[in-house]
UniProtKB/TrEMBL annotation:
Compositional bias ranges of the Low complexity kind: 304-316
Organism from which the protein derives: Colletotrichum asianum
Signal found in the keyword field: yes
Protein name: Peptidase s41 family protein
Residues annotated as domain CPAF-like PDZ: 160-280
Length: 919
């Protein structure tokens, strides 16, 4: 059941950059507000079909309030919701939360019953009034990213927006943050005035109260952060903060206008708007609006209108505003970067915007390959950027943790709330999964799928990492707060159907299991820091739990309300699994034919597809995560407050430059920089880090290489490549400064380019030693291939300071190459870029290879030039910017293929060689 591995990030709330992609035309006058809205939609759509139409918020609000209430239909809808709420795992804790929980207690069943009573008493005067109450009073107070219901009328057509965005920044990094208008901060940072009042209310108070009407945040500081612009939000969604648009409050009416009062005494009032998401053809009044969008006979999620909001930046970059990554997945979910600056040259940053990549294998490979690359370039410290990470595949989070701590077995305790539907499903699945005659060939896949699920007592591990012994061992009620739960369980990651099987599992081997047990730890725990902006939810919280509790990793949280003190970093849902209501309904219909008792049949009979057809999205949190400290008292992680080690405020330079956020986090984590609250003591683990680095690189060379997922290369036609090579400043500098090895033949010069230019990502000078004899140096006495066919010249190939030499499984010894497979007869060393010289000894008379600091270039030339028989240099060069990235299509298929033949080869490699020869 592949869907079982998802802790859905999509439920956090969509965000559209509507300020750049909407139009508002004059609204035709009409006594019917819905007719006026419909006419405005038609006019704007005809003029600009690809732009999202908008109307004044007041007009859309009047239209919604003119839609008549379908009283009996509303009562039927409320009744159909009840059995789905029974699956919400922490309902009793929401009704009676711990004292330090940020939000008031509320009983979702009592709230739903009140809505039903109000329907019977004719309290609601319109369908909109009823659905607003359902949304705001039953689901809004849940503060749970997995707990949501989007009713059709309320959410299908309109979203409320404002034409301004806000930022929260500290003037000096230590004083409490203030609120300013984003657009003014960008255009006139020196004169932008602080926002004091919004609609006559203290600005911070107004925002706090507004966002908490409906949000997915379990933490008030996280909710407060969500209303503001931040670069990570804009890069991942195109949104500018929920004050402007998006989030769950996009369905909560904010009035016709917004008035902002500034500290300098000025005041501005602007009109709020509603975007129109669906075609309004045929809508002429409230009743026709109801008929079109509140039809229980068909799903509310019908075909969208042809209008499509554009992205906020209009950029084709995977993460607009971010620097070019060293490694990335094609979808940009995982990306890696290096920091530069005083005290930061040994810091790498891995960004994970979710745990749900288009390919779990690419996600895994990108992280692994980035660690290898980073360590090879001397990066011994790691910033894990979890900003805007809403979760994803559960086991992807497990693998991410185990890549960093491969020998630490995680706990991951979780439980389900028991209800009649769950119990019936568990009884049936546990029975049919062990009865050969319970099924037939027509539905064998369905039964196999359910057998590989939590409903089967034979599936999952207990908290001792062993299988359950019986149905009762797993499902006998464990009572907490007068509620029955299953026993605690953990994922069985030794089960290949759960992991490597792409049909029923995630499709990858989890690091630390199976063939990935001999993986080295890449970084010291003290050299890792987690960076949060409060969004971290679902699977992100699971990975965070493992990193912080099991790995001992410190953490930093950004922003928060303008109050003194520490804040939490994990502000999203800590529940460990979500199910949408369609999945629960599917369980009832799939398993009903196998029901053998009246109780089982009655349990499934309570579910209908009515609430599915009357909503755009519906989900519940079905599995509580239980931290080790709460195994005895049963309090879900959702209600456990965990303050980060360090709190930092956003500052002006961080608004549109995410690297400033990374640098601030790295300095606080590794260089003793001051936090706004809390602090992280500077720790020196350089010696241990060096050992980790060597061990990891050695182990990496022994494992089959993953495919490094990178940005697409430029077109491979020859003209395009020549244009790309010739027309960049980097190329001009390269061709102007590069010494063409005048004492060596052209063929060998080209081989030097081929082997050395590709990985040159740092300011460096490389020295190449050569000799003109052929030597056999492999352990099994196989002849080591010379680069040239005739063996006249042999080029030593660089390696990194990991102790790696010529290995049978990676004869190139070149840890950054995924495709190179040339057997070089001897391997030389490359020094760490901080070092000027630290010669690697050898019994051979071959010259040594160095990488030295760029600033020491002149002195090193003088010092070592006489020691080289033949030498050359490569000047400052940035491969990625002109697409000299090594590609496996450049592989030398025949190790003895003459270079003259390669010059005639088609594609990018041949063009590259010919360009170098012409240059």
């Amino acid at each position: 059941m592949r869907s079982s591995f998802v802790a859905a990030p999509a439920l956090l709330g969509s965000v559209a950059a509507l300020s750049n992609s909407t139009t508002t035309a004059s609204v035709p006058s009409s006594t019917e507000p819905c007719a006026a809205v419909s006419a405005a939609w038609a006019s704007q759509h005809a003029a600009a079909p690809t732009v999202t139409p908008t109307v004044p918020a007041q007009l859309a609000y009047d239209c919604l309030n003119s839609v008549p209430l379908g009283k009996q239909e509303a009562i039927d809808l409320v009744d159909s919701i009840v059995p789905y709420l029974e699956w919400q795992s922490d309902a009793t804790y929401k009704a009676d939360p711990p004292a330090d929980y940020d939000f008031p207690a509320y009983d979702m069943f009592a709230a739903l019953e009140k809505v039903r009573s109000n329907l019977e008493a004719d309290v609601y005067t319109s369908e909109y009034a009823f659905q607003s109450a359902l949304y705001n009073e039953v689901f809004g107070p849940g503060h749970d990213g997995h707990f949501v219901y989007y009713p059709d009328l309320l959410t299908a057509v309109f979203e409320w927006t404002r034409e301004r965005a806000l930022v929260s920044i500290s003037e000096d990094g230590s004083s409490l943050p203030v609120i300013k208008i984003y657009e003014e901060v960008i255009s006139s940072p020196e004169t932008a005035s602080e926002v004091k009042l919004i609609n006559g209310i203290d600005a911070a108070t107004y925002l706090d109260e507004t966002i908490n009407k409906a949000n997915w945040n379990r933490d008030a500081d996280s909710a407060y952060n969500s209303v503001f612009f931040e670069q990570s939000l804009y890069a991942t969604t195109g949104g500018k903060g929920y004050f402007s648009s998006g989030g769950r409050i996009r369905y909560v009416y904010q009035g016709a206008n917004t008035t902002i009062t500034f500290a300098n005494g000025t005041e501005v009032t602007f009109e709020n708007h509603a975007t129109i998401k669906k075609a309004l053809t045929g809508v002429v009044d409230g009743p026709s609006f109801y008929a079109k969008f509140c039809n229980p006979l068909s799903p509310a999620v019908d075909a969208p209108s042809s209008t499509t909001p554009s992205t906020g930046s209009g950029s084709s970059d995977l993460l607009p505003g971010y620097p070019s990554p060293i490694v990335t997945t094609p979808d940009g979910i995982v990306s890696g970067y290096y920091l530069e600056g005083e005290g930061l040259d040994d810091v790498a940053v891995i960004v994970l915007t979710a745990f749900e990549s288009e390919s779990p294998a690419e996600f895994q490979a990108a992280a692994r390959d980035f660690y290898t690359a980073a360590l090879a370039f001397g990066k011994t410290k790691l910033v894990i950027d979890f900003q805007q990470n809403g979760g994803g595949y559960i086991l992807q989070g497990y693998d991410f943790f185990r890549q960093l701590f491969p020998h630490t077995v995680q706990e991951g305790n979780s439980r389900w709330k028991e209800n009649d539907g769950f119990n019936a499903a568990a009884e049936i699945v546990s029975r049919i999964s062990n009865e050969p005659n319970a099924t037939n060939n027509a539905n064998i896949d369905l039964v196999t799928s359910y057998s590989e699920s939590w409903f089967n007592w034979r599936y999952d591990y207990n908290i001792s990492n062993e299988g359950f012994s019986s149905f009762e061992d797993k499902f006998d009620p464990q009572v907490f707060q007068n509620t029955s739960y299953t026993n605690l369980m953990r994922w069985n990651l030794n089960d290949p159907l759960t992991t490597v099987n792409a049909t029923f599992g995630l499709g990858i081997e989890i690091t630390g299991y199976g063939n990935l047990t001999n993986v080295a730890q890449p970084f010291e725990a003290d050299n890792i820091i987690i960076l949060y902006d409060g969004v971290c939810a679902s699977t992100c919280t699971i990975a965070s739990e493992f990193l912080r509790i099991h790995g001992g990793v410190k953490s930093i949280a950004m922003g928060g309300r303008p109050k003194e003190g520490g804040i939490e970093g994990v502000g999203g849902i800590k529940g460990s699994q979500v199910l949408d209501w369609s999945s629960i309904y599917g369980f009832s219909t799939d398993l009903l034919p196998y029901a053998t008792t009246d109780k089982q049949k009655a349990a499934f009979a309570t579910y209908s597809d009515l609430p599915l057809n009357r909503s755009l999205a519906a989900a519940v949190n079905v599995r509580d995560q239980i931290l080790r400290e709460n195994v005895e008292d049963g309090i879900p992680a959702q209600f456990v407050k965990e303050i980060t080690d360090c709190r930092l405020y956003w500052t002006l330079p961080m608004i549109n430059d995410v690297t400033e956020v990374w640098k601030a986090a790295a300095n606080a984590a590794f260089n003793g920089a001051k936090c706004a609250y809390g602090g992280i003591e500077k720790r020196d683990v350089s010696e241990q880090a060096a050992v980790r680095r060597r061990s990891y690189l050695a182990a990496a060379a022994l494992h089959p290489r993953g495919i490094v997922s990178r940005r697409a290369l430029p077109p491979t036609n020859e003209r395009s490549w020549q244009d790309n090579l010739r027309d960049t400043p980097q190329t001009q500098k390269m061709t102007g400064d590069f010494a063409y090895f005048p004492r060596l033949p052209a063929e060998l010069r080209l081989e030097i380019w081929r082997l050395a230019i590709r990985p040159a990502r740092i300011k460096s000078v490389q020295f190449f030693g050569t000799q003109d004899t052929h030597v056999d140096l492999t352990e099994d006495s196989r002849p080591a291939y010379p680069i040239m066919e005739d063996g006249k010249y042999v080029l030593t190939t660089p390696r990194f300071q990991s102790g790696l030499g010529q290995l049978k499984v990676n004869e190139s010894g070149y840890t950054l190459d995924a495709g190179q497979d040339l057997s070089i007869f001897h391997i030389r060393g490359v020094l760490a870029m901080e070092a000027v010289a630290s010669q690697i000894k050898t019994d051979s008379f071959l010259m040594n290879l160095f990488t030295i600091d760029f600033e020491s270039f002149a002195s090193c030339l003088t010092r070592y030039r006489s020691e080289f028989q033949r030498w050359g240099t490569i000047s400052e060069f940035q491969v990625a910017s002109i697409a000299f990235e090594y590609d496996t299509s450049w592989e030398l298929g025949d190790k003895t293929m003459p270079l003259s033949d390669l010059f005639q080869a088609g594609g990018s490699r041949g063009c590259f060689l010919r360009f170098l020869e012409e240059a």
